[in-house]
Model the fold of this input.
Amino acid sequence: MSEAVLSIRNLTVEIPTRGSILRPVDQINYDINRGEILGIVGESGAGKSMAGNAVIGLLNRPAKITGGEIWLNGTRIDQLEGEDMRRLRGKHIGMVFQDPLTSLNPLLRIGDQLTETMLEHLDISRDEARKRAAAALDEVGIPAAAQRLDSYPHEFSGGMRQRVVIALALCAEPSLIIADEPTTALDVSVQAQIIALLKRLCRDRGTAVMLITHDMGVIAETADRVAVMYAGRLAELGNVRDVVTHPEHPYTDGLMGSTPLASKGLKRLHQIPGSMPRLTAMPEGCAFHPRCEFAQDICRAEPRPKLNGGRSACHFPIQQPAEETA
Amino acid sequence: MAMIQVKNLTRIFDVSKPWLNRVIERLPKAMLTAVSDVSFDVEERTVYSLVGESGSGKSTIGKMAVGLLKPTDGSVLINDIDLSRETDGGKLDKARSDIQMIFQDPYASLNPRWRVREIINEPVSARGGNVVGLAEKLLEQVGLSALDADKFPHEFSGGQRQRICIARALASEPKLIVCDEPTSALDVSVQAQVLNLMSDLQENLGLTYLFISHDLTVVQHISDKIGVLYLGRLVEEATPDELFENPKHPYTQMLLAAAPKMDGFGREIDPPQGEIPDPINPPTGCAFHPRCPIAAAQCSAERPEMRVVRGARVACHLAE
Done:
């Protein structure tokens, strides 16, 4: 556990309701190493953002962590509260949200927002902070950075705003960045710019990145490893190349197949029947079995399949074509 | 004869500040050219896609095609009828009943207080048509159950709602459906279901789609012909195979290079430079010239006309 920047062990997030307890995140495990980009994919409601928010302590009540551990650089952080958590946020973990307009304060100049963060977390003078703010904007590719410090967020375009948010997440030099759908609101050409920027910063500084997205193409190009989430559980975790080209879990296979990219030249897209179960009506056993073409009796019964250090949480993982027997 | 003929279509919006501000701050009027001199034809029973980034004018063209907006200049002819200029009420009525639209957000485009039956029947009952059993039949056609007709929209997921929108669009038996980003709000596995449904319906019912999207992969999958828009101008038009194998306009080339690829593991690309310019003050000549890697002096001076280059229509001085 020493090499990993972030270790998540059996993390469970629960939302108590009147009749029952909902589990949007159910016993997930993963590590992120220094300089590594871990992609987290899944469809809406899979619990990918909830897992990210749990790490940085931004769960909205009544949702709360009810089990498992989160370790950051060898320190356990899931039980931190109040002041301790606030010091951790920004200093050790940076966060980039989907919508760059709502994650900046529209009433403050961006230079003030950057220096505020640095003065809060680093022991430096105001002048030094301003110098570093200009350098940070320069690093994320904003032209004439020193002059733009006095601009307000509305004076920037969407792509430029997202660069400011990234500079803000990076300015206290955190060891982990959680990027929650950082390019979803952006156009293709701007998305390519932001992805290239994230990759470069991650490589140069050795920052670990948790990249949460639903776009398989972005994951394939950016991530080193990928975790596929389904109904709050990890379905598959492995090297991005293995997972994308030879998925083991039937859900991953269906997800890859249903992207138009993968069905190139086919008349119809491959489709998974049905839709993700609601949290209030989670099936017994493997959550995917009602939609799975390989489901057997064992899949419908508890205990459900777990990763257990392997690639996929499935009783009948799809074999590589070469070893195919049955 | 093409079903839709778009000729020199232009739409300018007045985005000036209120007159008092203009007087006090001595500002001129601000005019935003959302669509500028766009021409294309859509053949019957084909899928024509308009693709472009935000602000490229693709939705504005869609709205003008169904008659929700009037063109500033130029015209849209649908089966030879110009919705914005036709004065014969009977002809207009006939033309309008042949057009339907599917919108992006299936949460916003269904009335939450209406039952699904009323929603689907309305396009027909509004014209005094017979609606007995219509909603039930259409719901089954789009892969839902006839029993769903008595439910309200909030009881359905996003993908199911989009199916209801499709059922509503089919109710009046239209010939043309304008689809404005119909799958952008959906997850990939649901998107695949909806796209397959749309392809099946198009084939079985002989529909024509004007399909508007920002997603190149979706467009490549569903289209018979693709028009690429940049800053309100059509820059290239070609079949999907030709466009994706052999893009001719530098903007199309840039867009295709920037799009993420499933096999692009660890791909290091030079990201495209710059952003879409301000449409209130577009660049002179070719709108793409400030970002174009091969721009010459001619490009900043003279706006390129659409011309045929090896099986595609391209608006570029230098494409060959």
